[in-house]
Amino acid sequence: MNKKLIYTIIGAAIIAGGSFAFKMFGGNAQTIAVKTEKVGRATISNVVTATGTIEATVTVEVGTQVSGRINKIYVDYNSDVKKGQLLAVLDTQSLTSTLQSSEASLNKAKAEFEYQEANYERYKRLIEKKLIAQSDFDEVVYNYQSAKASLKSAEAQYNTNKTNLGYAYIYSPIDGIVLERDVEEGETVAASYSTPTLFTIANDLTQMEIEADVDEADIGQVKLHQRVEFTVDAFPDRIFQGSVKDIHLNPTGDESVVTYTVVIDAPNPEKILMPGMTANAEFYVTEKKDIAVIPNLAVEFHPDPQLLMQYQEAHPDVQVQMPNPGDEQEGNTVWVKAANKIYQEKVSVGETDEINYELISGPKEGTELIVSMTSQNGEVAQADEAARSPFMPTPPGGNKK
Question: What pTM was estimated for this model as a whole?
Answer without folding.
Answer: 0.65
